[in-house]
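Below is how a single chain appears once it has passed through the pipeline. First comes the sequence as given, then the structure the pipeline wrote out for it. We keep one example in the README because the format questions we get most often are answered faster by looking than by reading.
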Amino acid sequence: MFSDVGPLELVTLMVLAVLLFGPDKLPEIIQNVAGFLRKVREFSESAEQEIRSELGPEFKDFEFEDLHPTTFVRKHALDGDSLGLDEIRNTLDPKAELMRVADAVHEATCSVPQDAVAPGRVSLSKGTEAGPPARTTFDPDAT
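Resulting structure:
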């Protein structure tokens, strides 16, 4: 409850309590508040035990914090992977698909012999340049 209250805030609250209630009534008020908090905690624990006993033995490791929406999603959808999310995530991995395509292109360009590149075509192999296309002379009588 007071986990994020610093020492300066605590001193300020104590001074305000002394000013509001006086030094004579302050111990009685502290006892009443502590007793109230103790009764609330006992009521909460007894209600939790009653709910557990009513649910039966199949819910023996049931935690009430699991009912919080973010905890519920994290526990059932992300951690358990009962929905097959890992399989979907692996199938739709674009990085792996691009790596496979790059490897296939690399293998195809490395396996093509240098003489197999047709003139006028661009070679995908590194270090080879394709020359200009070979021109044939036009002969009008060669029809």
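The chain is about 60% helix and 0% strand.

See the next section for the split statistics.
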